[in-house]
Amino acid sequence: MTISVNAIKPHIGGIIDVSPDRLLDDETIEAVRRELEMRGVLVFPQINVSDELQLAFTDRLGDRVNFTRQVPGSDAETPDVYKITLDRRLNSEPDYVLGTFFWHIDGITIDQPLPKATVLSARRLSDTGGATEFANLYAAWDHLPDDEKREYEGLTVIHCVEAAVRPVHGHPSEERRARYKAMAAVMEQPLVWTHDDGRKSLLLGTHADGIVGMPGAHGRALLARLQQWAAQPDFVYTHKWQEGDLVIWNNQGLMHRVVPYTDEGRVMHRTTIAGKERPGVAADPAKVDRIYQVA
After folding, report:
1. Right CATH for 5-291 from 3.90.550.10, 3.40.710.10, 3.60.130.10, 3.40.190.10
2. Angle formed at CA 280 by CA 274 and CA 285, multiple of 5 degrees
3. Contact assessment for residue 248 and residue 37, using Cβ atoms and an 8 Å cutoff
4. How far is residue 139's CA from residue 224's CA, in Å, rounded to a whole number?
5. What is the pLDDT of residues 27-63, one digit of tens each?
6. What are the boundaries of each domain within the chain?
7. What's the rounded mean pLDDT across residues 238-261?
8. Which CA distances in Å does 172 have to 110, 159, 178?
């Protein structure tokens, strides 16, 4: 069997056509590992995997990790499969799903190695919205001017769940804020991540709440500019789901978001591959306080 990968765009995305019974073959797994590093996000059109096959595929690529056990909908039917839905019967608190309408990296506010990759399968779709956009943070770094690269290396950024869901609620209640803090850590991550293989990428997303050592407004303005830079069309692939699609992306080198939808019938199943690299550390509270001070 020969695996062919068709590029979607020069800087991001590839399509793999393979039958479900060959998904776990050594040749398929080798191709996925290789192309995931090159293309960032891979699409298996309408392959229609079961939870069991999706978990087996995840396990062939690495150790699985489940970092959303405290989130409503997690493990709704199958252990380690997170069901993403706005269905109130399964998800009584949709903040986590609504927060995915904004650019983010999975697991970046957890004090553990950053998940290597995310696997997502489409079980039921929304009538409108619901596409997923992916932005290549390796390409965003590679194409920055050299003077900006020199300026940004060495900077660190505060990431927190509260920032990630701020666009959802604006000013959440103290009770909500306490729940957010219980779900995750406040992390200090490098703005420019030098990976173990020597490649570099930016680390960005709505959860990025300020730059250590900069006044809050200055740091957030820079983060907003860089997020816009990383989300330019050349670096972004928008996947318009078909029922049965399976998508895997390099969570350590891409940020992603979903196009807003309101349909409670949309259901996606997610599994996650653990990473070995831990770019950041739990943030020093004093550093966090300083980014909120008015200059």
Report:
1. 3.60.130.10
2. 130
3. no
4. 17
5. 999 999 999 999 999 999 999 999 999 999 999 999 9
6. 5-291
7. 98
8. 21, 17, 10
